[in-house]
Amino acid sequence: MEWVKGEIIGKGSFSSVYLATPRSNFYESPPLMAVKSSLVSQSSLLQKEKEILTQLRDCPQILNCFGDDLTVEKNGEKFYNLFLEFASGGNLAQLLKKSGGSISESHVRCYTKSILQGILNIHEKGYVHCDIKLQNILLCCSSDGSTEVKIADFGLAKKSGQMKNNSGEIDEEIFSLRGTPLYMAPESVSSKEFESPSDIWALGCVMSEMISGKPAWRCRADSDVSALLYRIGFRDEVPEIPDELCEEGKDFLRKCFVRDPTKRWTAEMLLNHPFIVDSPVSLPLNEKASPRSAFDFPEWSSQESSIFNSIESSSPSILHFDEEFNGSECSGSSSPSPSDRIRQLAWGNELNLSFTDSWITVRTESSVSGIEELKLQSSKSQ
């Protein structure tokens, strides 16, 4: 496929996101797309995201993926490109800000139902998202002008219950800390456990924030993150339920904020909760809430950055631990103290954003077989 690369709308340390449009009428792609591009040598997370999105392609609450390809720049550098649906309505964090810090309860019901439907599909396909948050819930415009709520960014997702890699060895990466601190479940902080219940806890945080306009764990942007995460993982506390919610909404959040993951309600159970059953069918598209790009990076401080332990790649939403926390200490064979684990979660780094108005035509360097060759080489290197 030939495609035209437009302005850069997001840039991190391992990949960039561009607006793009097919040069010809390619039957599987829309007139406007978002393209995540990364050097082939740093593309393992993008390839992983492509594989997961392919498994979830039949779910209307998951951002569409239109394929991938390889391109070669004039300087000879090879890039891996992932074609994604462009969300003209932005994300929930942007909508919350433009709505004056609170979203109406009727709309929150609808958004929450759609997110739940997406989470249920993710879990039924055997995956855990691991980073459900406002910035990863995108708003797309359907053909009839209504808003479609879609879950995006599967870079930190994992197989449910997976403990070993393809070689049959304990996978250290699976036991690494991942996610966004303010949305992390207690078991994720205390035991590095990331299974389907952790997505439900994060959903509760998202819903609470939509209602109140504040993080579920009440804190200022400059608060001590270490102390907060200690509360999440090692103290018998749960987030405060917003007073603004109706009784059904408060009960819904109580089912999400159960510290014991084995007693936390599942996505299937929550879809039958009265707060969700009575939600509206659809929402009109709010044009005033549409930013210039659905892939703008969050405006929050580094306290909200996602965490992932990887020596291969990095991005604005990914933090790295010192080498002292790599290896066996991330495999479950030894347990750092609570204070050490909190210190791991508290580190952050700055975002690097840039924009351009240039447009260039890009031609796919190779066929599907080239992509398969890339994936084979990547798996061998791992």
Automatic annotation (TrEMBL):
Family matches, as CDD domains: STKc_MAPKKK (cd06606)
One GO molecular-function entry: protein serine/threonine kinase activity
Residues reported in the UniProt entry to bind ATP: 36
Key words of the record: ATP-binding, Kinase, Nucleotide-binding, Serine/threonine-protein kinase, Transferase
Family annotation (PROSITE patterns): PROTEIN_KINASE_ATP, PROTEIN_KINASE_DOM, PROTEIN_KINASE_ST
Alphabetical list of InterPro entries matching this protein: Kinase-like_dom_sf, Plant_MAPKKK, Prot_kinase_dom, Protein_kinase_ATP_BS, Ser/Thr_kinase_AS
Entry's Gene Ontology BP terms: signal transduction
Protein's UniProt keywords contain Kinase: yes
Highest rank taxon of the organism: Eukaryota
Keyword Glycoprotein recorded: no
Domain (Protein kinase): residue spans on this chain: 3-276
Family (UniProt): Belongs to the protein kinase superfamily.
The protein's name in its UniProt record: Protein kinase domain
